[in-house]
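Researcher: Predict the fold of stizolobate synthase.
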Amino acid sequence: MKGTYYINHGDPIMYIKKHIKLRQFLEKWQENVVTEKPKSILLISAHWDTDVPTVNLVEHCDTIHDFDDYPDPLYQIQYPAPGAPSLARKVQELLKERGIKCEVDTKRGVDH
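Model: Structure tokens for stizolobate synthase follow.
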């Protein structure tokens, strides 16, 4: 897959309810667009509040469930994503080159 895509995860409930249209769309989109496994994914999260942009520099990302009052099966979903330290360093470098203050975190996981 080549290109840049903005993909909104929508309501987390769609991961346990197959009839939700966004889920159906994303499954079909994946079949048609994702022809090979990407080497890495750059994820920009609105759930991670920091004073300055922060790059997650980890080898492995645990799943963070930062929502309340959802069915128990959602809290059981884990996405043990591998980190991409070299991509994270490149992002940090590019931000700094453009005068954007940037910090690094070595412990945070990935938001649901």
